[in-house]
Amino acid sequence: MAEALLQAEKLKNFIGGEWVETQDSTEVTNPANGKTIVQVPLSGADAVNTAVEAAKKAQKEWALVPAPRRAEILLQVGILMKERKERLSQLLTMENGKVIEEARGEVQEGIDMAFYMSGEGRRMFGQTTPAELPNKFSMSQRAPVGVVGIITPWNFPIAIATWKSFPAIVAGNAVVWKPATETPIMAYELAKIFEEAGLPKGVLNVVFGKGSAVGDAMVHHDDIRVISFTGSNETGRNIASECGKQLKKVSLEMGGKNAVIVMDDADLDLAVEGIIWSAYGTSGQRCTAASRVIVHEDVKERLEERLLVEMEKLSIGDGLDESNKVGPIINKAGLEKIKDYIEIGKDEGAKLVAGGYVLDDDVYENGHYFAPTLFTDCTADMRISQEEIFGPVISLIPVKSFEEAIEVNNGVEFGLSSSIFTSDANRVFKAQRDLDTGIVYVNAGTTGAEIHLPFGGTKGTGNGHRDSGVQALDVFTEWKAVYVDYSGKLQRAQIDTE
């Protein structure tokens, strides 16, 4: 099936509008069955340098193209993605493992982003303000930064890339993109779509390779003026440090330790549905996945019982099978990390009531599957309640009050997404005010962000910038203040005011 869908045995870099072969490569395997899908290049600094030179040259001309014309390219990209949605979704499932309905949702997110950002080509508003002197005009406008470097993760290989590349391109920048080596196919396919849509050569460049080679070269390249990164907290901190030394703009979207709060007046059936989807969708491999459930002690036992019933119903297996709701973990290293946290939880005294093991029977041979897991009677300070596991693991934490629930939610180093189930309108408004996260859901799980609102978080989750929404333009533009004096004489602001 892979051969029929992909029609390539080895991918190539896309630099300056040309498909460039490389000498070194590595295998990309399907996490559902361990089968090799394709070979991906392992590039180095030389490829990055070539891509940046192509981007610099292209960006100068691209910035002069009127923004509405630039937007027409994005519109065409969205149309082509929509036409190829099913094929892209199946390829995504093969390289990433997520179940097919989630893959379709991710591709749709990219389509939505194309249409949304194409609209910004006719907006991209600045401001006009009254000048303090007569016969003088003042305004602000956005200007492109230049060459942008984007580094994207394996868990959302096309959606996150569109969050970053589309606003960068419509704003008049050129892009050098390093996708995750585990999931390069979406980058290959998106580059082909941009090529077909008529994007000028060099405006988008894709360089495959490891972060230690390609990513590091991008971070240290003088002509890349923005780095937009989604990935681990440790790597993000290192990128921020290096970019800070260069006075280089950097946008970070990192981890999460997201919680669903279930109050004593919650609709428990709805809460269970939201928890199951948020915790076990994508096998827990989302930065917005729910890995903590903070539950009022009066409904804790009932919630736990219902969760266990619904967990038993989850079908696990190859994501291309429409009946499956939980797919594999991305690789063996991911499995080992989850296994380690299971032992940590047990040692800390948490009660394991479901899951906690690798699925390694004949049905799952050569795949990377972990059973949906539930710990109960956890405390807020346990490592499994504090640290990002990135797998299908829930820590159930009982609390005595709404105020304690808010405190527990905020008592982690991350601040990406939070959720509360309650029927009390007063609690709803207090929660959205007091929950220290960039995203808040009421009577829904912790996942499901929409592209027209900003995506990102507080504290260890990021550094204040946002992907998605109109706010994404802030990452890839600089504000320019413009004054036009038509008085015919020199007027000095703050001095000639009388």
Q: How do you describe this structure in short?
A:
The chain is α/β, with parallel strands linked by helices. Helix content is 38%, strand content 22%.
Assembly type of the shown chains? single chain
Q: List the uncertain runs.
A: none
**The CATH superfamily title of the largest domain:** Aldehyde Dehydrogenase, Chain A, domain 1
CATH architecture annotation of the largest domain: 3-Layer(aba) Sandwich
Q: What strand line-up does the widest sheet have?
A: 14-17-18-13-12-20-21
The N- and C-terminal alpha carbons lie at a distance of 78 Å
Secondary-structure-based class equals alpha/beta
Shape descriptor reads: globular
Cα radius of gyration in angstroms: 24 Å
Mean pLDDT across all amino acids: 96
Q: Summarize the amount of helix as a percent range.
A: 25-40%
Q: How many domain regions?
A: 2
Count of β-strands = 23
| CATH class value of the largest domain | Alpha Beta
Largest sheet report: 7 strands, mixed
Plain-language structure description:
- By secondary structure, the protein is of the alpha/beta class.
- The chain folds into 2 domains: 2-254, Aldehyde Dehydrogenase, Chain A, domain 1 (3-Layer(aba) Sandwich); 258-442, Aldehyde Dehydrogenase, Chain A, domain 2.
- Helices cover 38% and strands 22% of the residues.
- Helix 6 (159-170) links the parallel strand 7 and strand 8.
- Helix 4 (85-96) crosses helix 5.
- The longest helix is centred in the first third of the chain and has 21 residues, at 100-120.
- 52% of the residues are buried.
- The mean pLDDT is 96.
